[in-house]
């Protein structure tokens, strides 16, 4: 059995990747969640079932929060909780796009203490603990040193740059880019391949918990859209948006947003 929480998440993420590869581009069963909550596939459920069995067996006193498991309020009484998105970027997975990810985190006292984001089709494993550096396939990574908005690359969907969200009716002069997985967007900021990421709508904890720690341990500042630290394993497990960027660039984003 892995000794540390981070080792446990790494082993589980790699096993999740082995399962996802078996379904990828092989016409898995697809259905839609109630309330227009998006699609889910056989692969999502198979990965979720494995992760819940393996992780909760290894740490039976930890709570469990996952996109593909009905929420159980018992997690609120646990000192630590797993926060899991079995496949972040399900639509990309369905489309045969390799940019989907497995997002696994452990939270304690409202903060993430161990995190892994794994893209199995790219064999890219991002990891961090609360005490150590962020890594990509075992090598340390660092957020960019970009301090000004002009020319900076921003990972965001187009609606986030609509005029109503910004003071004066226009966002700073970013170069907008997009990747399907929110968890991977945060990791790409951690890696310094892109300068910042932004999402303004309420965002599920399982989409951002792992990427939050990885980006922060790589030197980025990560908050909700109001500038506050995101508290995890909350009764209502949604963040009020996410801003992630190096400090001065984060301040530029935050200052530009309309209240």
UniProtKB/TrEMBL annotation:
Pfam family, any one: Inositol_P
Name of the protein: Inositol-1-monophosphatase
Matches recorded under InterPro entries: Inositol_monophosphatase-like, Inositol_monophosphatase_CS
Keyword terms, alphabetized: Hydrolase, Magnesium, Metal-binding
E.C. no: 3.1.3.25
A GO BP annotation: phosphatidylinositol phosphate biosynthetic process
Matching CDD domains: CysQ
Cofactors: Mg(2+)
């Amino acid at each position: 059995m892995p000794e540390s929480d981070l080792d446990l998440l790494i082993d589980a993420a790699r096993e999740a990747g082995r399962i996802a590869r078996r379904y990828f581009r092989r016409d898995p069963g697809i259905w839609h969640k109630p309330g227009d909550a998006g699609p889910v596939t056989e692969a999502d459920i198979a990965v979720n079932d494995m992760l819940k069995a393996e992780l909760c067996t290894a740490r039976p006193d930890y709570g469990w929060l996952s996109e593909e498991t009905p929420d159980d309020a018992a997690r609120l009484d646990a000192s630590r909780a797993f926060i899991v998105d079995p496949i972040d970027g399900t639509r990309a997975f369905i489309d045969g796009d390799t940019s989907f990810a497995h997002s696994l985190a452990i939270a304690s006292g409202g903060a993430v203490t161990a995190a892994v984001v794994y893209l199995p089709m790219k064999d890219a494993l991002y990891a961090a603990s609360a005490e150590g550096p962020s890594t990509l396939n075992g090598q340390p990574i660092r957020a960019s040193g970009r301090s000004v908005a002009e020319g900076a690359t921003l990972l965001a969907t187009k609606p986030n740059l609509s005029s109503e969200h910004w003071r004066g009716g226009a966002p700073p002069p970013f170069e907008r880019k997009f990747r399907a997985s929110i968890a991977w967007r945060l990791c790409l900021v951690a890696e310094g391949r892109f300068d910042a990421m932004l999402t303004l709508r309420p965002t599920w904890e399982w989409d951002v918990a792992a990427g939050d720690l990885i980006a922060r341990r790589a030197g980025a500042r990560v908050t909700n859209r109001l500038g506050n630290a995101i508290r995890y394993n909350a009764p209502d497990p949604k963040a009020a948006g996410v801003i992630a960027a190096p400090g001065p660039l984060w301040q530029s984003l935050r200052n530009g947003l309309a209240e």
